[in-house]
Structures are given as structure tokens and as C-alpha cells.
Amino acid sequence: MSATLRRHTALALARAMLAGPRAADGLAARMRACLGSAQARWLRPLAERCARLPGEHWRRLTPRALATLVERDAGYAQAWGDDEPVPMVRRYLLGARPSMRPPPLGLDRCHVPDWPDAAALAAGLGLSPGGLWRLARSASWQRRVPLVEQHYRCHLLPKRGGGWRLLEVPEPYLMQVQRRLLDSLLDRIPPHEAACAYRRERSVADHARAHAGQPVLLKFDLQDFFASVRASRVHALFATLGYPEAVARDLTALCTVATPEPVLRRLHEDGSISWTQLQRWRDAHLPQGAPTSAALANLCAFRLDLRLDGLARALGARYTRYADDLVLSGPRHLADARMRIAAWVGRIAMEEGFALQHRKTRCLTAGRRQSVCGIVVNAHANLARDEFDRLKAMLHRCVVDGPSTQNRERHAHWRELLHGRVAWAAQLNAAKAQRLQRLLERIDWSR
């Protein structure tokens, strides 16, 4: 029999079971009403197994998830054999109007918005129902529609090591909706403590300070961090927060994109991406350039951070992550076990849907310069000496020859850029930054 027919029948049975209380008699009666048959011997055992599910598990079940459990039932599988009457759906039993489910333990104080249906979601994001429908189009539509009709604009930026970086930036009208979603929902959900990027009161400096003064530093890098987070994982996140399936589907569509074929063809012909990367971008994924992607990536990487933090603790080490940059640091024995640790980290990343760039894996001991995201951490977090010297020399030339002579790349906000670089140096080493600040104050910006 067709696998599609089996799936549709399982979905009908799942909706029938969810249409009433979780009692074995009621579950069996509703499934018999759905099939219009009292002869199926496998219905009662299936109902009893479902009735024994933990209450928290049952409350969070969606029709699709329960249908998967039905399909895995041995009695249901045997019913599709040659010697059994094939289950046929006679009527559909639908439950009450969808409502928000309680969030999981640990997130019950986050106060997520109450969006039980698409109308409430549209109102909460300042959209009309028609506007929500236009923005939450399917991935297949995104792949085939002409580029001028897309909700995203693709930009190719050259990488330092060669190749291209793909930025998928939403149009202003969609970006505004995503910012509302970020403020009203995503910013209320805390990521794992090891995540240092894209969150309030945490920065790359905190990521570096966590590993200052350690004998051994192990650095790993994730490949295509945002593109590795697929729409299915984002949908599971919204469903976990308690949103009904239809609302979770619309929220996922608002935050993910399937890269159009012309863009993929350009990247593939240029040789900039591998076949595996091509498939990642072809499927709906988090776009690098959307305001919601950073928060969603952190939340979807929660299990990755949880497992790597557990691995680090078992090794007597520390672990933090800044976007796609993973760092473990600790005692000297980490250097001897670096190959095994790299294998463990790679396996955990793969099982959580990510992949390491093995060519960027590094083991740095205290006998050489240890840096985390460009910050030297041998003794304490500090600006690299060569970077400090270059910035000091640039500021000196700005004082002597005028600031415009050093703006070789024609930055529109050159003054603000220099102030920012000095402020960054002050975060890492306030004493050394005072010399830079004195030079900055001597610059004549009218020259």
C-alpha cells in the first residue's frame, strides 16, 4: 500500500485521539469512529499505550508527532498486511480550536506572546491576514519565483581566504516584521550560558576572558553556521514554545529562506561552494542577514552547547561559543588528547546538525600566542601587540598629517570608526588605551 495513504490514515487517527480526553476507552472509541470499524483488534492496545504516555508529553504532542507514533505501532503496521483488512478513514474527528500549549519546564517564566492562531499572529506582528500569507510563502515558492519578486536580496561578499560569503538580507518590510518578532518573542528566551554572541550583556570579550591564562586552548569552527539551521529545527523550536502547528509553520516561514536557484547556480559555477553546501542553501534555512537569525541560531544550538559544555566539564575544561567559534580550554592533558577531543566535538556537532571545518581546528599551548577571535588570552584578555602598534601609528599619522590622509578606503564615518577602535582597545586594556585616547584627542578633524 502507498506510504502516503498510511501517513494520511495515521494523521486522521491522531487527530481523532487528540479531539478528546486522554483515557484509553475514549481514545479507542474515537479511533473506531474515525475508521467506522469495531473489528480492528489493534486499536485497543494502541489506545492503552497512548494513554500511558506521560502527561507533559501528551500535552505537547502535535497531530504530526502522534501520527508518527501511530505509524511505528506494530499492530498498525500489521493492519496493512495482505491478510488484514486495510484501515479506511470514514470520518474525520477534529478537536477544539487550537490553543497555546504550556512552555516546557524552565521556560515557564519567559512570558511568550499568546498567538493561538494565524489571525492572532498577524495582529501581534502588525500585519493583516493577507499580509502574513504573502510573507509566509513556502520554500518551493521561494526557489522558483523570479529574483525581483523575492522577499530577500542576495549579496556575495569575498572572503579573505577566497570564495564568497552569501548574505541574504530581507527587504525593509520583512525586516521590520522580523524585528518585532525578535523584540516580542525571541529576546525573551535565554540561550545556553556558554553562548556569548548575539545576546545582551555578553560580548566577544567575555568569550575570550573565559579562557584567559589556560595552559591549553582548543579552537574549532562550524561550517555554514546559519545555513546549517534548517526550517524543520526552527519549526520544532516554535512548537516547543507552545505554538500550534499552523502558527509554528508561519513563524518558521517568516524567519527562513530557500536560496533561489539562479544564486545557487552562480555560486556552483564559480566553484565557491561544495555540493553539500549547495544542498544546505537549497533547503529552507536561517538567512545570514535577517535580524531574527542570530537569536534563532543560538536557541537551536542549545543542545550543541549543552553537550559540549558537559564534555568540557568531564575533561576538567571550560567551553564557550561565539557564533560559529567553539573554544575549549583547560589543563595540559588536553593537548595530549586533542585528537580524541576533536573527534568527540566533531561527532557531537554532526549529531546536532552541524559540521566542523577541520582545517581551522587549532591546539594552542601557553608557549605560543593564544588568541580567541583576535584577542590575546595568554595571561589575560588583551589587544594583540601588533594590532596596538598599527593603531597607534595610524593615530600618530592622523595627528601629524591630518585624518583624511589615513582614510585610504574612504570610510564615510572615519571619525566614528577611529573612536570605536579606541573604545574597543579600552575594553581589553584600559591602561594602554589611554595613550591611544590622548592621540585621538590631538587630531584636528578640520584638516
Can you give me a brief rundown of this structure?
With 447 residues, the chain is α+β, with helices and mostly antiparallel strands.
Question: Which short descriptors sum up this protein?
Answer:
elongated; alpha+beta; single chain; three-stranded antiparallel β-sheet; 447 residues; 9% strand; 9 strands; 22 helices
What does this protein look like?
By secondary structure, this protein is α+β, with helices and mostly antiparallel strands. The chain is built from 22 helices and 9 strands. The protein has a 4-stranded antiparallel sheet. Helix 1 packs across helix 5 (63-71), helix 14 runs antiparallel to helix 15 and helix 20 runs parallel beside helix 22. The chain is elongated. The N and C termini lie far apart (81 Å).
List the helices and strands and how they pair.
Blueprint: H1 3-18, H2 24-35, H3 43-51, H4 55-59, H5 63-71, H6 74-78, H7 118-124, H8 129-135, H9 139-144, E1 152-158, E2 164-170, H10 172-184, H11 204-209, E3 216-221, H12 231-240, H13 245-255, H14 261-270, H15 275-282, H16 293-300, H17 302-314, E4 318-322, E5 325-330, H18 333-336, H19 338-351, E6 362-365, E7 371-372, E8 375-376, E9 382-383, H20 385-401, H21 414-428, H22 430-441
Antiparallel strand pairs: 1-2, 3-5, 3-6, 4-5, 7-8, 8-9
The largest β sheet comes out as: 4 strands, antiparallel
Q: What class, by secondary structure content?
A: alpha+beta
Tell me the fraction of residues in β-strands, as a range: 5-15%
Q: Give the strand tally.
A: 9
Largest beta sheet: strand ordering: 4-5-3-6
Radius of gyration: 27 Å
